[in-house]
Amino acid sequence: MENQLTNFTIDNITNNRNDIINQFGVIEKAIVHSHQRKTKSGKLVQVKEYEDKRQKKYLNEKTDFNKFKDKEGNIDCHNKNLTSLKGAPKVTEGGFDCDSNNLTSLKGSPKVIKDYFSCSFNKLTSLEGSPEIVGGDFNCSNNKITSLKGAPKVKGSFGCSENRLTSLEGAPKIVKGDFDCANNELTSLKGAPEVVEGNFICFGNKVKFTAEDVKKVCKVSGKIYFRPKFPY
Questions:
Q1: Phi, psi (deg, nearest 5) at residue 22
Q2: Residue 122: strand, helix, or coil
Q3: Residue-wise pLDDT tens digits, 10-52
Q4: Quick check: helix, strand or coil at residue 223?
Q5: Contact 186, 206 (CB under 8 A)
Q6: What is the pLDDT of residues 116-162, one digit of tens each?
Q7: CA 200 to chain centre
Q8: Is the dihedral of CA 104, 121, 217, 210 positive or negative?
Q9: Domain ranges (residues) in the chain
Q10: Which residues make Cβ contacts (< 8 Å) with residue 163, sequence separation at least 6?
Q11: What CA–CA distance (Å, rounded) separates 139 from 192?
Q12: pTM, to two decimals
């Protein structure tokens, strides 16, 4: 366009000034519009503001967990790209599986679950907001959890392996099934359950615990796995 303008006379430029201004005006409007989005009300807003509002609205929306429920009352919402449990029922008649999502918190989870609860393979760092009572097994393995504070009372096994636990403080006092705290960063078994009616699994921590270490803090009815595949 610069080459074209150099061939114009002063009169040409003067006569065509409005056309040139209009051309740039159209371009300028097009550029502005490319950075805007129209809301439902017809109002134009900047793209960042528009996306921020959509993201905020998305995060505040409640998921309809009824669509994940089967005939037995189990809710299976694993691998649904969930970022929140907001909208979950307070009580479930069956189990609740929210594995393999993008959860960073358990806030909004059911308070009473009459069967199992599993929240493994998420992005959790704590058990804050966890259910209060779980009628079956509880599994929070494969996260980034650093503390068991807020853990529920369970009537089955308790799995917290493959996390970043440095302490077992907050673990349930009695575990009716297995207790698995393998592959964490534990240097002590302080806070471990007092009674485990199944197996006690504790290998792969910063300290290599022995069967005697486990017996000092817990009454185990089953086997003690202080090395992979080698029970006591």
A1: -65, -40
A2: coil
A3: 444 444 444 444 444 444 444 344 455 555 666 655 655 545 5
A4: coil
A5: yes
A6: 999 999 999 999 999 999 999 999 999 999 999 999 999 999 999 99
A7: 27
A8: negative
A9: 2-57
A10: 140, 141, 142, 143, 144, 145, 146, 183, 184
A11: 16
A12: 0.74
